[in-house]
Amino acid sequence: MKYGNNKYEDIKIAYIGGGSRGWAWGFMSDLAVCEDMCGTVYLYDIDLEAAKKNEKIGNGIKDIEGCKSQWKYKAVETEKEALEGADFVIISILPGTFDEMESDVHTPEKYNIYQSVGDTAGPGGILRALRTIPMFEEIAENIKKCCPDAWVINYTNPMTMCVKTLYKVFPEIKAFGCCHEVFGTQKLLVNALEDIKGIKDVKREDIKVNVVGVNHFTWLTKAQYKDIDIFPVYREFAEKYKDNGFVKKSDENWMNKYFSCSEKVKIDLFLRYGSIAAAGDRHLAEFCPGDWYLKDKETVEKWGFALTPVSWRKGDLEKRLERSEKLYSGEEKFELKETGEEGVQQIRALLGLGDLVTNVNIPNYGQIPNLPIGAVVETNACFRANSLNPVFAGNIPQAIYPLISRVCGEQEQVVDCALNRDLDGVFNAFAADPNMCISVSDARKLFDEMVDNTKEYLKMYF
Amino acid sequence: MKYGNNKYEDIKIAYIGGGSRGWAWGFMSDLAVCEDMCGTVYLYDIDLEAAKKNEKIGNGIKDIEGCKSQWKYKAVETEKEALEGADFVIISILPGTFDEMESDVHTPEKYNIYQSVGDTAGPGGILRALRTIPMFEEIAENIKKCCPDAWVINYTNPMTMCVKTLYKVFPEIKAFGCCHEVFGTQKLLVNALEDIKGIKDVKREDIKVNVVGVNHFTWLTKAQYKDIDIFPVYREFAEKYKDNGFVKKSDENWMNKYFSCSEKVKIDLFLRYGSIAAAGDRHLAEFCPGDWYLKDKETVEKWGFALTPVSWRKGDLEKRLERSEKLYSGEEKFELKETGEEGVQQIRALLGLGDLVTNVNIPNYGQIPNLPIGAVVETNACFRANSLNPVFAGNIPQAIYPLISRVCGEQEQVVDCALNRDLDGVFNAFAADPNMCISVSDARKLFDEMVDNTKEYLKMYF
Amino acid sequence: MKYGNNKYEDIKIAYIGGGSRGWAWGFMSDLAVCEDMCGTVYLYDIDLEAAKKNEKIGNGIKDIEGCKSQWKYKAVETEKEALEGADFVIISILPGTFDEMESDVHTPEKYNIYQSVGDTAGPGGILRALRTIPMFEEIAENIKKCCPDAWVINYTNPMTMCVKTLYKVFPEIKAFGCCHEVFGTQKLLVNALEDIKGIKDVKREDIKVNVVGVNHFTWLTKAQYKDIDIFPVYREFAEKYKDNGFVKKSDENWMNKYFSCSEKVKIDLFLRYGSIAAAGDRHLAEFCPGDWYLKDKETVEKWGFALTPVSWRKGDLEKRLERSEKLYSGEEKFELKETGEEGVQQIRALLGLGDLVTNVNIPNYGQIPNLPIGAVVETNACFRANSLNPVFAGNIPQAIYPLISRVCGEQEQVVDCALNRDLDGVFNAFAADPNMCISVSDARKLFDEMVDNTKEYLKMYF
Amino acid sequence: MKYGNNKYEDIKIAYIGGGSRGWAWGFMSDLAVCEDMCGTVYLYDIDLEAAKKNEKIGNGIKDIEGCKSQWKYKAVETEKEALEGADFVIISILPGTFDEMESDVHTPEKYNIYQSVGDTAGPGGILRALRTIPMFEEIAENIKKCCPDAWVINYTNPMTMCVKTLYKVFPEIKAFGCCHEVFGTQKLLVNALEDIKGIKDVKREDIKVNVVGVNHFTWLTKAQYKDIDIFPVYREFAEKYKDNGFVKKSDENWMNKYFSCSEKVKIDLFLRYGSIAAAGDRHLAEFCPGDWYLKDKETVEKWGFALTPVSWRKGDLEKRLERSEKLYSGEEKFELKETGEEGVQQIRALLGLGDLVTNVNIPNYGQIPNLPIGAVVETNACFRANSLNPVFAGNIPQAIYPLISRVCGEQEQVVDCALNRDLDGVFNAFAADPNMCISVSDARKLFDEMVDNTKEYLKMYF
């Protein structure tokens, strides 16, 4: 790449998982409306056809009205081709298929273990990690060989374990993981400001928060809007909506019954623990003891959120495939709109085009002193020209330390054991997961079944 | 006190809980057979009569054959009288009566929560802490006033929370907590050496161990006898006895069905986690997820240990009271025998009469880098003349970090909230305890009932 | 204060040292051109007349063309009056007079100890600290009473010791220290980019740096402009100018012989140590062993910088007093121009009007892991709405650790001893200062003389 | 080796530097009087003849009256032969000859830099390190290959840098460095107890001390004998002897003018800094600023200690060579007497034959929280069966932190640069050494000359 005339040219981005129908399009859109950089995005996907379709879709964007920068897209046949000499690497893959995810999410139901998402924590998250970690191992090794100086942005779940794998395999990697769950909570705080204080038109980014925790089990220890400490405001809001939940009108239109969320889990955790739980309720619930919010379907309903069945994801994929065809054929026009994701802003900041402070997932260098050094945590970090430094976040508050330290440690354990191909070690983490309100012997049966269900992706362990 | 002719004289010991029928007698016996020190033990107890009886019993010891040093015993009416100018303070109290303990242990059974001991962890341990912490607050304040330079040895449970309270209230206190559970595991390793290797007559103290964890959930990361690494020996032993358990002949005589233990929990934890769990199975079980070893009475039986009903303790107390009367009246002769406790050896070491390295409960200065600084932990420490320094123990091994960090944090939380008289904060710890496999609303009902049952001792919270 | 319509009103700023002729005017100017806030600045100074003059000067600004916000200025008679309810506190005082500074700087010359500035490090810095620390003690106590929630910006030297005093006296204080020396080095890097690479019109703020060290002995471990790593550029620059120094044309006009600097010290330190020394050469020299750059006047000349005699400062003060009169009388027009200082931008960021990442002096929370926790260090920090968090800076590089750790520790020692009124303790730091290439007995004589010279301000130590 | 009947047999010890005339004989003597272990000592020395002589001398010991255990001695031709399968490794070598040491010690005198020992700190220590580090590199690599599980005891100076090299090259090494300087200070405290308090016959080991610092610049933060805090006693002693020094009668006989020491440096440091400097004055002086105790010969004399000329060492070596011949030929009888060194006791403790707590040089795991993790420091450690764990020592007291942190960092720097063959990096440490009260350019000339003088041993750097 090169910089001149207030603009970067010839940036090379490798997109691993570049056949994606969804994330990739959003990223293309965000790139297109960003004036001060352009270059080429290399799309790599195990589904080469999908990548090729995205190549064509991407290359069509430059002709759309409102497009401000000319990016080229190129599908490539090998990961290394994509990575070679890359300035940035995006990783957004689905480890396995929705069939595997179906096992992850629904097999545990035999033991009355319900999971609202099943991609991060709990038995589903661990099995997904088993598939994902070897893939990230390979990616990390390839990055080491092909583009050791590239900045690497991961969007894949289980986030914490993916990022940890990258750093274990290639400690000098410049990687971080991005997730928009905290943004959702900032938006809820915007709602609270309007609902309680009558303050309108506050922007999400103007809610300044201090973030601690691990991905999808993030907590805010401070939230401020201009001169207003939001904690007392949110307390009032929480008391108001703790019984019936808070559902925004606009959300209802978009949402469906499988993603519904009335913020009651979030509110309950806040009222009990004093810090603001800052992820979707479906995620938060999966990090808490299994008897709290996910005991059974009635409990889930009572807490006003939903279990997302993988069947829905399969159906949704169909729709996205159809849309892909239409975009590919030109039947549907690609529309430019900002996604609200920060990936492109982070890239700009790393290129020195404006500082950015936001939350990311990176190893703990001491930004959270009472979690183990090296564990991947989510806190604010400071993006500047070719640098990403964590912002000191402070200790996990004592009240929530027991909840967070155990899952932080569990995820560390899974990564290490998976890298050592030690399934028994992984099982130890699995058995002690907060969701696992069953005996060790039942846990073992469940684990073995889940491994067997997804064994096609787990050959390296045997 | 003063030192001369290789001997200390006029040592002043304050014994808080000095009416004890059991611990106190053992301590008296250990003092009597120690040649190089003598002085006065001031016995304070809320049951003054009991202290007076022990005064007489203690003062009779000097005439027993085998007594090597002349200690005086004196019952006093106030705690301050006992503490004033003390060189050493022993704290060994029962917080409340066995009626309160009955509530601690058995009330949770309504929710199918079984506790094998109920004095350290779990709902019972937390309620006991609620009673104990204000008592230790007062003791710490009195020590600060009356004998700030004294060494303070605590034997009371819940150990971790008692010691933490002392340090929170009087940070300069020279206090530590002692517990013999690790010794029991060292003895088991002696058995393993004999059973597997045919090595006989090994002394417990010659098993050198590295200890990490919190009291009653202690783990050995290293165990060595002379040139033998005991880990592979213990592994063989564990494999041999994992199904049917290991019960020593001599133990059977002593034990009764309420204290039985076949080491199967300990063995299971070792085989799964790779470090040696080092406390009695009844204690270990209470720190693990409730569904593992304490799910129901059948599970307990299957794992070869027992629930100790408080009714048994009440009966046992009767017997000890009877024995107290007999010792007091002279009907029974006081017998001198070493208890195997290390209290007197620790005192000697602190007086400069010989270095001692053994495990104790003190704040974390960094001896366990991956637990929070300041949290009370159990590791080896080095006792020398007027100094007690922790020995670097290393990180909690990753595999057991999730199990230990959560209970370590929970206990920190209980102490802080109890000192702030914040019952809601205590409840948060209570609800997240590993034993609590119930919903938050049920947890609240149980908590309220347990508080109500013991409210006579909890007035300061209202 | 209150926020509305994208603007803050009624902000209350306390300016301690508000009679200043120089800093205060610059600050007034920066406030005036900032659109989104206004309020009142309370000027407190031991020289009330000076404050009153600044009141009039300040209140005249609103009528100047280009003034964008209406600030009121009000001189007050007591520090507490200024502080009461303040939102922000500026501290910019001269501890003592230039007579005391004359002793600080020139008395050591009797022992061939030359100081180029004498306000931060070395014997002069320590004596100045002796006067300043009790003043800051009082300020901190008043802030605790009058405006505990205010943000406090210190500009006074010795910076590190001033900020440390504030935190020692009132640990919850929200204080930080600002210094523009790093900016000067960023400008030098701008020059290097132009000189070596031909890149023009780079802005100082676009040089992104990672800062470690203590104030006036700050070092850059990373410097980046867009996609350019500046280290190799600066190395080329350093090799080019190491013999004859680098003097910018524009600087020559402004500078006089007492402030001259040819960057040779900075270049020498870089070439030897590999990190970029990032303060003026006159400051850097004072933190290095006395025989390096300040051995005698010839050595100073050889290294291309100057000793600033206090007589010059006295003359300069005369000129500033004259200018003050002219501004006061209206003979001279107050001119609005940006100072390049960041104080007003920091205030804006703390009000939530835009994030800012810049270098400041605050306690070490772990942002520099190999310096003691709690020591005041200079690193980047992140300013956001009502929050200031250090950015992780990493270890002091091994090569410069010996140079920095000793002065960091020395300053900690001076503050503690000064707060305890322990002059012997301060002397220990004094004797071991890098500049002190003399025997301990000579050091004592010098110390006593310097104390005696300034005893009017040191009564609290006797 | 094997253990049985309360005794170890077939222990294999590798002695690197086994041709030594002095240390080796003492070690043989200590081994001979230790009942519970025996085996073979493999003597390796670059001077094979010397090793062979020691083989014969050693093998003659078993016939001496008072010899309690039968050790065999065997000179070997290669280091690897000695190390292969060793249980313990002793390293006690002279890096280079006294000709090189002559350059180390006396060349700096051209610049008025005087060194009392010149083997640890200062320019001499650094040049010695340059020769030694590559030798230790090789030793560490051989240990890794031949006996990775052996315990390694180093006696060679510069101690800190030798031990650090072992750990840098082979991080899993079980190595520590031993030095008797702290023992000497304990003996001085014994003298103080007798002199001030009239307490007689106190044993060195009964003075319990807390040690912090780096080798030869160790400090005691606590010293206790039974119930007596020695600090006030030592203060009285220090005041009594600060002017004329303290010289023990018995010492005078032994000592000569080149080793004289009147403890005045030690006393001065104590009175100024409040912690007890705990090494010989000749060593302590070399870690302090050069103008304090080593400014010139008059200053040295005034402080009551001596510079040890290398010519004396050469003469002494002659005598030891003569004695070697006599022992070899049988003309002189080998005499068994305890050396007061602890090496053999440490070996016993590591074999599980009795716990030992004493001071050693090992990496900082956090035993001194305010020095960098990983730096080699001297503190107490706990020796037990196959384990050596540091005892928590606490922070370097603030008053001496500036003195210690800089030399600690300097030594880290020298090791790293020497391992990287980076002489310029070593020079940076050299130039900033406390003894170097000269300009950087003079320092460079001196460095180059010293390197040139000893270049035969420094070929790997060119």
From TrEMBL, chains A, B, C, D:
Binds 1 NAD(+) per subunit. Mn(2+) binds at C179, H216. One of its GO terms (biological process) is carbohydrate metabolic process. InterPro entries: GH4_Enzyme_sf, Glyco_hydro_4, Glyco_hydro_4_C, Lactate_DH/Glyco_Ohase_4_C, NAD(P)-bd_dom_sf. Its cofactor is NAD(+); Mn(2+). It comes from the Bacteria. The record marks D119 as: Increases basicity of active site Tyr. It holds the Pfam family Glyco_hydro_4. The keyword Membrane does not apply. The keyword Chloroplast does not apply. One of its GO terms (molecular function) is metal ion binding. Keywords: Carbohydrate metabolism, Cobalt, Glycosidase, Hydrolase, Iron, Manganese, Metal-binding, NAD, Nickel. Substrate binds at N157. Homotetramer. Belongs to the glycosyl hydrolase 4 family. This is Alpha-glucosidase/alpha-galactosidase. It comes from Hominilimicola fabiformis. The lineage of its organism: Bacteria, Bacillati, Bacillota, Clostridia, Eubacteriales.
